[in-house]
UniProtKB/TrEMBL annotation:
<feature type="compositionally biased region" description="Basic and acidic residues">
    <location>
        <begin position="309"/>
        <end position="324"/>
    </location>
</feature>
<dbReference type="GO" id="GO:0005524">
    <property type="term" value="F:ATP binding"/>
</dbReference>
<keyword id="KW-0547">Nucleotide-binding</keyword>
<dbReference type="InterPro" id="IPR027417">
    <property type="entry name" value="P-loop_NTPase"/>
</dbReference>
<keyword id="KW-0046">Antibiotic resistance</keyword>
<keyword id="KW-0067">ATP-binding</keyword>
<dbReference type="InterPro" id="IPR003439">
    <property type="entry name" value="ABC_transporter-like_ATP-bd"/>
</dbReference>
<dbReference type="Pfam" id="PF00005">
    <property type="entry name" value="ABC_tran"/>
</dbReference>
<dbReference type="InterPro" id="IPR017871">
    <property type="entry name" value="ABC_transporter-like_CS"/>
</dbReference>
<feature type="region of interest" description="Disordered">
    <location>
        <begin position="301"/>
        <end position="324"/>
    </location>
</feature>
<keyword id="KW-0813">Transport</keyword>
<protein>
    <submittedName>
        <fullName>ABC transporter ATP-binding protein</fullName>
    </submittedName>
</protein>
<dbReference type="InterPro" id="IPR003593">
    <property type="entry name" value="AAA+_ATPase"/>
</dbReference>
<dbReference type="InterPro" id="IPR050763">
    <property type="entry name" value="ABC_transporter_ATP-binding"/>
</dbReference>
<feature type="domain" description="ABC transporter">
    <location>
        <begin position="4"/>
        <end position="229"/>
    </location>
</feature>
Length: 324
């Protein structure tokens, strides 16, 4: 059963459509990913779901509620990840949990959440003294305090080191396993591939594709990657004529080609024709990065982008129209 329904959502700023007819539904119990490059319109989309921005047109429904019109009731079904700026640096973990508990009529027991999220030892620690990973744990705890049916996590693991990121992935899976639907906004291909049941790839305000991670990879035209080191130089014109090759890269002495099984057959014949041997020949399935490139025409946003974002100024104008 769909718990979030977004239909033909549109939002423009300064005459530019930043969300341009986005539609998707999130099924109860899934981790649904919104994946896209910087500025693709991901946050604007989920903030419309959270009722923090007012759509220009289109409809959004969360458990049957209109996020803007029914905002008070929405907070009982939807938990949003805390923005760091919303907590005082001096507040302790315990104080934050107690304060948030008061916002809800039927809150979860914060002590149980603290146990689940491994924050027991940190109850008297001030927010400013928490590590990035601990802040994210607190952020998840605060999003879950109202016993929501859906949580929205926007770039939750940006800025975390790989270990803390993996720990956070496990927590997100545990949240889903406890019956809460997760709407996850991310830059990270690996994160999307590992966690999401389905992914909407957003490109320039539109849904470029919506499928399972495996479905996105297999529907991309470049579903296979072949790489090898030829024993003699290969003529570029001949490589360019390979059927269904989406990209051909030379990396030092290696050639890496994204294509299909037909491309692989053609590479093998080409090598045989010229009596060229291929050292360290590898044929593998394409990854979500390859599919992303194929679907959006731009390279997958990588960790470096995300780390850089951390230090970029937040979009403050959006908050002017926040409804809470
Ligand atoms: N309140 C606003 N006023 C003007 N422009 C805005 C506002 N909010 C967002 N934008 C612009 O809309 C576009 C989409 O922004 P959005 O934050 O939704 O993208 P995003 O996919 O979440 O990007 P990122 O990954 O960088 O956060 C961007 O070009 C952004 O600068």
């Amino acid at each position: 059963m769909a718990i979030v329904e977004v239909k033909d959502l549109r939002k423009a700023y300064g005459g530019r459509n930043v969300v341009d007819g986005v539609s998707f539904t999130v099924e109860e119990g899934e981790i649904f990913g919104i994946l896209g490059s910087n500025g693709a319109g991901k946050t604007t989309t989920v903030e419309c779901v959270e009722g923090l921005r007012v759509p220009d047109s289109g409809t959004v429904s969360v458990a049957g509620l209109d996020p803007v019109r029914d905002h008070d009731r929405l907070t009982t079904v939807l938990g949003a990840q805390l923005q760091q700026s919303e907590l005082q640096p001096k507040i302790t973990v315990r104080e934050a949990l107690e304060q948030y508990t008061k916002f809800y009529e039927h809150p979860a027991d914060w002590r149980a959440l603290v146990g689940r999220l491994g924050l027991e030892e940190k109850l008297t620690t001030r927010f400013a003294a928490l590590s990035g990973g601990q802040r994210q744990r607190l952020s998840i705890a605060l999003a879950l305090i109202g016993n929501p049916r859906v949580v929205v996590l926007d770039e939750l693991t940006t800025g975390l080191d790989p270990r803390a990121r993996r720990d956070t992935w496990q927590l997100i899976e545990e949240v889903r396993d406890s019956g809460v639907t997760v709407l996850l906004v991310t830059h990270f291909m690996e994160e999307a591939q590992r966690l999401c049941d389905r992914i909407a790839v957003i490109d320039q305000g539109r849904v470029a594709a919506l499928d399972t991670p495996a479905g996105l990879v297999s529907r991309s035209t470049a579903s296979t990657v072949i790489s090898f080191t030829p024993s003699q130089p290969l003529d570029q014109d001949e490589l360019d004529r390979l059927p269904q090759a989406v990209s051909i890269e030379r990396r030092a002495d290696r050639i890496v080609i994204n294509g299909t099984d037909e491309t692989v057959d053609a590479v093998v014949s080409l090598l045989a024709r010229h009596r060229i041997t291929a050292a360290r020949l590898r044929v593998s399935d394409a990854t979500l990065d390859d599919a992303f490139l194929d679907l959006t025409g731009s390279a997958a946003p990588d960790a470096a982008d995300a780390e850089a974002d951390e230090h970029a100024p937040a979009h403050t104008p959006a908050h002017e129209e926040r409804t809470r």
